């Protein structure tokens, strides 16, 4: 029998702990669970809204009763984040859980201190040099409006605080969510001023205190005016209480099972962003619109970004951790935009080349065949650069006759045969494009990124030599930010080669 203080609990999941031997309680709270051993085992029970309960049971020893206790349904903003054995913050998890070392290598652990984030927020470069504050002019029809930076002044790139020096903005709702989770603080947290566990960004306990995500039922997306933590429901306990959510229904001691942790909507609040009515980044919405969101045949964000860890416990065995199905233990390293192997498994590229009436023709096809969102996705600073080079037997580049070329903002590759894949924004007042200052009013100037399962085909023609060998080199690069911006900020972020292919054509 499974019951609570009021009586039977129907629909509870009952399981022999750390096994697939499970059943569900009937309307009267009863269950029958077969055991094949007389050794005492832990039998657990869970139902939505309750802590996981348990009892030690022996086969043939008679009926057992598991009493479930509901967890609290309020949030305590004054909660002091968990600590253990003298370790504060996420380090308190390191004593028992291998996931801590994975999280340390993950971008979520750096969200509050990432130098790219902070230099964009402050309007500085990595050495602390700061651009001049935004300039404004007055027009009697429009009032004050911003103009382009003074070309005669040193400039170290844009910054939110250059444009809005008297407000903190909402950056902290995603980058420093624990600090922004206090009532009235979501728009007043300066990321430069946080310390302690709040400076850990998206840390262990923060995620495992999330009990619900608030989405607009009409769209399935977060509300545009509720970024990050504003679309999350936290369950921070009062004095004498504790609660952690996890992805197992049989973990006892202050834990409840939360299926949401393995659903893409868990990631939605910080991977969807609208600024001044412009949809700036939308990884979750792109997934939602794609076949990957089909619950029967698709894949979740976690399926790709939290792959199987490769071991069979989530608590070290020497700390009492149970051996489990390794296919249910997921890595917290969460590969993404900086992971070379991950990016090289994102798209497929094929190139063909042939001679046609004295002209070399190269056709390149790129398909987003393995990614549940656009490529690239997330920040509009990210883009792909495709280059196509044709080289004769003497090592000289053949002149291009036709086909696209990399745009002028393409850095060292600008003007070369090829193209760029990007979501390009333009600020409305200054008409700067591509702009990275999307905290200002912007419009989408162009967007040719690859949607899930979409294919882009481009063709290039070159002067062909009269005879001899021609080598064709096709390269697809992933670039974290626009070259000019990286130069201004001093970011040292090398390009990643996603795909490359070499071809040879011989003219008799």
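Q: What amino acid sequence fits the structure above?
A:
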């Amino acid at each position: 029998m499974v019951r609570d203080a009021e009586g039977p609990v129907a629909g509870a999941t009952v399981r022999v702990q750390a096994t697939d031997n499970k059943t569900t309680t009937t309307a009267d709270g009863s269950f029958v669970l077969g055991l094949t051993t007389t050794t005492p085992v832990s039998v657990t029970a869970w139902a939505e809204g309750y802590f996981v309960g348990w009892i030690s049971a022996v086969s043939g020893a008679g009926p057992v009763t598991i009493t479930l206790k509901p967890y609290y349904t309020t949030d305590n903003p004054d909660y002091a984040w968990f600590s253990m054995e003298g370790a504060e913050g996420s380090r308190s998890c390191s004593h028992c859980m291998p996931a801590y070392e994975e999280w340390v290598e993950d971008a979520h652990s750096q969200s509050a201190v990432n130098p790219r984030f902070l230099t964009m927020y402050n309007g500085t470069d990595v050495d602390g040099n700061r651009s001049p504050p935004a300039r404004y002019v007055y027009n009697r029809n429009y009032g004050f409006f911003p103009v382009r930076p003074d070309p005669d002044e040193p400039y170290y790139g844009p910054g939110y605080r250059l444009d809005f020096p008297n407000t903190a903005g909402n950056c902290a709702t995603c980058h420093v969510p624990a600090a922004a989770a206090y009532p009235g603080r979501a728009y007043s947290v300066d990321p430069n001023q946080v310390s302690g566990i709040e400076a850990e960004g998206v840390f262990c306990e923060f995620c495992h205190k999330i009990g619900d995500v608030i989405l607009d039922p009409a769209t399935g997306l977060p509300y545009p005016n509720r970024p990050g933590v504003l679309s999350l429901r936290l369950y921070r306990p009062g004095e004498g209480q504790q609660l952690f959510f996890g992805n197992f229904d049989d973990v006892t001691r202050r834990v409840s099972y939360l299926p949401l942790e393995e659903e893409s909507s868990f990631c939605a609040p910080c991977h969807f962003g609208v600024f001044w009515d412009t949809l700036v980044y939308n990884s979750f919405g792109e997934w939602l619109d794609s076949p990957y969101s089909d619950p029967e045949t698709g894949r979740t964000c976690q399926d790709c970004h939290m792959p199987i860890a490769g071991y069979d416990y989530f608590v070290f065995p020497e700390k009492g951790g149970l051996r489990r199905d390794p296919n249910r233990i997921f890595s917290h390293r969460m590969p993404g935009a900086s992971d070379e192997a991950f990016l090289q498994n994102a798209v497929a590229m094929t190139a063909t080349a042939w001679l046609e009436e004295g002209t070399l023709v190269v056709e390149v096809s790129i398909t987003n065949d393995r990614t549940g969102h656009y490529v690239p996705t997330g920040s509009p600073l990210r883009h792909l650069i495709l280059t196509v080079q044709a080289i004769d037997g003497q090592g000289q580049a053949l002149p291009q006759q036709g086909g696209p070329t990399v745009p002028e903002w393409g850095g060292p590759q600008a003007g070369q045969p090829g193209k760029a894949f990007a979501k390009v924004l333009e600020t409305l007042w200054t008409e700067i494009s591509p702009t990275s200052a999307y905290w200002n009013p912007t419009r989408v100037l162009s967007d040719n990124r690859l949607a899930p399962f979409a294919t882009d085909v481009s063709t290039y023609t070159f002067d062909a030599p009269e005879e001899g060998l021609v080598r064709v080199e096709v390269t697809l690069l992933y670039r974290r930010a626009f070259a000019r911006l990286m130069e201004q900020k001093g970011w040292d972020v090398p390009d990643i080669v996603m795909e490359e292919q070499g071809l040879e054509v011989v003219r008799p």
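Q: And what stands out in the fold?
A: The two ends are 85 Å apart (CA to CA).
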